[in-house]
Known about the structure:
This protein starts with a strand and ends with a helix. The chain is built from 17 helices and 13 strands. The model has no long low-confidence stretch (mean pLDDT 92). It has helices spanning 16-29, 45-51, 65-74, 76-82, 111-114, 121-137, 146-158, 161-164, 191-197, 217-227, 246-255, 270-279, 294-301, 313-318, 330-342, 345-359, 363-376; strands at 2-6, 35-41, 56-61, 87-90, 103-107, 140-143, 171-173, 204-208, 235-239, 262-266, 282-285, 306-309, 323-325. 47% of the residues are buried. It has a seven-stranded parallel beta sheet, with helices on both faces. Strands 10-9-8-11-12-13 form a six-stranded parallel beta sheet, with helices on both faces. Helix content is 45%, strand content 16%. It folds into two domains: 2-177 and 363-376, Rossmann fold (3-Layer(aba) Sandwich), CATH 3.40.50; 191-359, Rossmann fold (3-Layer(aba) Sandwich). It is α/β, with parallel strands linked by helices.
Amino acid sequence: MKVALDATAVPDLPGGAGRYVVDLSAALAIRRDVDLTLVCRRHDKSRWEATAPGATVVAAAPRPRPLRLGWEQAVLPGLLARNGVQVHHGPHYTMPLRSGRPTVVTVHDLSLVEHPEWHHRSKVAFFGGALRLAMARADAVIAVSEATAEGFRRQVAKRFRSAASKRDLPIHVIHHGVDHERFHSRATAADAALVAALGVRAPYVLFLGTLEPRKDVVSLVRAFSRLAPRHRDLRLVLAGSPGWGREAVEAAVAASPVGKRILRTGYVAHEAVAALLRAAAVVAYPSLDEGFGLPALEALACGAPLVTTTGSAMEEVAGGAASLVAPGDEIGLAEALEEALAGGAAVDERCRQGLTIATGYTWSASAAAHAAVYHSLV
Length: 378
């Protein structure tokens, strides 16, 4: 089956949703039941040829976002037709409204409509409209977790009833995978150099992700400030690009009495992420809400003690392998970090459980489930 995957929204330095497209495309490209066409921006061809060597790469989309979104509606349908595409997959909420073939849309999380205060206004307005159009026009929706699927159904009933009322839109829950060749608990010869190149020294608490309101890094900074006096050598490493609303993080670091022990690395190249996770004393992922929480799963795969939050996809994914605290509870977060730093039988057992849980998530299995959705539409 000839399937098109839209990679035009993946930035040069991909984060969570971008990593999903990168790893999914690589896994789909080696399947015998999928003839993959990757559609990307004009400057981006070499990256996707290296990512998915078995795919046909069509580098045709303009680079600026406004032009690209217009191109998606006006030009992409004809491109799909000329390339004989049977199913089109929009992996980041959007889709061409008149593609002339079955279309699948991936929904990563519903925070854009359920908690608009966590996002930039322009992003809220755009993606709210994109979700409404997906309700009306998509042939299938892929949700990256049960939590996301439940949120999607809730929003259909609450906000988008008119768009979906005349159809039985199938919603498929397909989890992300883990690149187990990269994310594992065995320290490599390159780990120390990769960590040192970032200016990081052990021991440290690690946060990995974009610095934005939804990740609640402010509570983590305050929790670290509570426990740091009892751990004189401990540092907090905030590894990720500064996002919208980063001023709150900067203010929290400036106000912290141990601000000099808080390191912001900026974006971390993919090859260094696993080394950071393996060397961390504890990984903290205190996000208020996530569609999936891939860094949390990758932390488990690397054997790191994990502290994350209740009530979202991260609890669903981590099972009993993480120490869980309520979102926004900086005192509970500090206590959970303290327990993880102290170690002991309970912490060791959670780490062992994490390794077992992580083995059940592979990009091969994720790609197989995606392929099954594609085939069901033809």
